[in-house]
Design goal:
binds pyridoxal-5'-phosphate, 11 helices, about 350 residues, alpha/beta
Length: about 350
């Protein structure tokens, strides 16, 4: 049996959690501020503001940028539904773009709409083509919120994702490249005004200890999760390096044609290692029969989800793509021999 994913749980994570529970305030303890400082340093931004999910990070970023029900916000249809749900939550109109068939990332040229903001997603840990995003952003003076929920540590043009746009959003859901031992998220920015807004929005719109001047939420990251996050951040680069090694192994055994392209101006952190083939369903059942865990990201692009179908989009590349992609086991503890066995089984079908 080779599982699709195994969460990492170490003695260091356990010790940090117990220490935080014993010695700190449960909410907004010291670990929260230390984690934020360390994450900002890692990403290369002035500020990092922790929240309780990637969805919260995206939603609060949009609100802090003044997005309202009059706005239009561009995102990619090939993503987890949260990339678009955050837009609906503000009352704004999601503008869904089709994708590049070669890497699954947003192809912003597939829309002519004038956006008030753009949420490019670095899907599967591979940075999207930021040059084209930047040019649309400059034309329409639309800020960029990077959805880096799958891309902790990835780079574009030698800069860490999350530091390239106006705001970066990260998720620490357990399957991500790093976790906090539960749900969690982070916003990164160089803009002090956005930092102040999000500080307040995550804390019920608090202005001072007893005054609240805006409509906010309870979206803070718990202290115990921040303490675990600090430990996970220490080994993120090592884990990403292992993910890249695993991707090279898959490439070696399967050949380049089966694999998605990596952005030539960037470095992917392979949150998912994807193979793409017209015999996807056959490969899926052959691997399942052989007790190898696989998954599909995503079987339905966002515009085909029941919540979005009524928008009436026709985005053919993503529809073809969603029928051909298969996510391979790619967690850092996976052994080289496991990849060899998985690829032998795939090659029996090809
Ligand atoms: C691309 C993308 N955006 C947003 C999210 C939302 O993050 P969370 O699940 O932490 O709310 C996720 C995570 O699942 C994601 O993969």
């Amino acid at each position: 049996m080779i599982p699709f994913f195994v969460p990492e749980f170490t003695k260091d994570m356990e010790n940090a959690a117990i220490d935080a529970l014993r010695n700190e305030k449960f909410v907004m303890g010291e670990s929260v501020f230390k984690f934020e400082e360390e994450f900002a340093r890692y990403t290369g931004t002035k500020f990092a503001i922790s929240v309780n999910s990637g969805n919260a990070a995206l939603q609060l970023s949009l609100i802090s940028l003044g997005i309202t029900e009059k706005s239009k916000v561009i995102t990619s249809t090939n993503s987890f539904v949260a990339s678009a749900n955050c837009i609906l939550m503000t009352g704004a109109k999601p503008v869904l773009c089709d994708i590049n068939y070669d890497d699954g990332n947003i192809d912003i040229k597939t829309t002519n709409e004038k956006p008030e903001a753009i949420i490019p997603v670095h899907i599967y840990g591979n940075p999207c083509d930021f040059d084209s995003i930047k040019s649309v952003s400059e034309t329409h003076k639309a800020p960029i919120i990077e959805d880096a929920c799958q891309a902790h540590g990835a780079t574009f043009d030698h800069k860490k994702v999350g530091s390239i746009g106006d705001v970066g959003c990260f998720s620490f859901y357990p399957t991500k490249n790093m976790t906090v031992g539960g749900d969690g998220g982070m916003v990164t920015t160089n803009n002090e005004e956005i930092k102040k807004q999000i500080d307040s929005l995550r804390d019920n719109g608090r202005r001072t200890r007893t005054e609240h001047d805006k409509l906010g939420f309870t979206m803070r990251l718990n202290t115990v999760n921040a303490a675990i996050g600090r430990i996970q951040l220490q080994t993120l680069d090592e884990k990403n390096k292992r993910r890249r090694e695993l991707a090279s192994l898959y490439k070696k055994f399967l050949g380049d044609d089966c694999m998605l392209d990596e952005n030539p101006k960037g470095t992917s952190v392979y949150h998912q290692i994807i193979i793409k083939h017209q015999k996807r369903d056959e490969i899926f059942s052959h691997l399942s029969k052989n007790n190898i865990g696989v998954a599909i990201h995503y079987p339905k692009p966002i515009h085909k989800q029941p919540l979005y179908e009524n928008l009436g989009y026709n985005l053919p590349i993503s529809e073809k793509f969603s029928n051909e992609v298969l996510s391979m086991p790619s967690f850092p503890q996976l052994k080289d021999d496991d990849v060899k066995v998985i690829c032998e089984k795939i090659n029996e079908v090809l």
